[in-house]
Design a protein that fits this description.
By secondary structure, the chain is an all-alpha fold. 89% of the residues lie in helices and 0% in strands. It has helices spanning 2-23, 26-32, 35-81, 85-94, 99-113, 122-143, 147-179, 184-245. Helix 5 runs parallel beside helix 8, helix 6 (122-143) runs antiparallel to helix 8 and helix 7 runs antiparallel to helix 8. The protein is rod-shaped and about 90 Å long. The N and C termini lie far apart (101 Å).
């Protein structure tokens, strides 16, 4: 019993050593791979490159939107307090990357086009509200661009890596069959191939999932800000209309 346990332990240590030596040599692991496993690795690298591109693009876009919105909010509030719609629209048009500016400017343009200097019927106010809602939907879709792909990569990359794992194990058994022996050297290449693709799949998926959750929380905050801005602008339109009536 003791001898058997010692033999199993020694074999396990030898297997771990053999796999580890192959795993830490990317060139050797790649050289041991057959074309199906290499295809999996290429796909994972493409997924990783695409997800990194989306992360960088959304990070820059959200940062610019936040920065310009912080500058836009007090400027538009001052222009509206003075009743200067033209100045308010010019301020919005200068803040091209601000999500708030895009929504508010759309509502202001609609309101001005209906004749903001005279008494405006309720249906025209409703038209301004619909313009704001359309602008919100468009801006939200623009800012959400690429996030669905990021979520897809985060959820599928581990399974793509698992496919490589299955292929690696199949190669290991195929090597045993060809060599007619069950030595560690015959299976270490296939096992290291399997572990490498599994690790690569997780390496691609984990950042994608983390950044998708981060960007989703940002989108929720942006959506709340756009809703609040639309609501405040509608209140301004109604108050201005009541002032004109008086």
């Amino acid at each position: 019993m003791l001898v058997a346990s010692f033999a199993v332990s020694s074999s396990a240590k030898m297997l771990i050593a053999a796999v580890s030596s192959a795993q830490w040599d990317p060139g050797r692991v790649w050289g041991d791979m057959q074309w199906p496993a290499r295809s999996v690795v290429v796909i994972l690298f493409l997924m990783s490159a695409w997800s990194i591109g989306v992360m960088i693009d959304r990070w820059i876009a959200y940062r610019a939107a936040r920065k310009q919105s912080l500058q836009f909010a007090p400027m538009i509030a001052g222009a509206l307090r003075q009743g200067n719609l033209d100045e308010a629209i010019r301020v919005g048009e200068r803040s091209k990357k601000s999500h708030l500016a895009k929504v508010v400017t759309s509502g202001l343009l609609e309101f001005r086009g209906l004749g903001a200097a005279a008494e405006i019927p309720e249906d025209h106010i409703a038209a301004s509200k619909r313009a704001l809602e359309r602008a919100e939907a468009i801006v939200y879709a623009e800012m959400e661009r690429g996030l669905s792909g990021l979520a897809t990569i985060g959820s599928t990359a581990p399974f793509v890596g698992l496919l490589g794992t299955v292929i690696g194990i199949m190669d290991a058994f195929h090597n045993i069959q060809e060599a007619h022996v069950s030595s560690l050297s015959a299976v270490s290449g296939g096992i290291s191939e399997a572990l490498a693709t599994t690790a690569l799949g997780l390496f691609v998926a984990i950042p994608a999932v983390m950044m998708y959750n981060y960007f989703t929380s940002k989108m929720k905050a942006f959506n709340v800000e756009m809703n609040n801005s639309s609501s405040e602008l509608m209140d301004y339109f109604l108050k201005r209309n009541r002032t004109v009536k008086a």
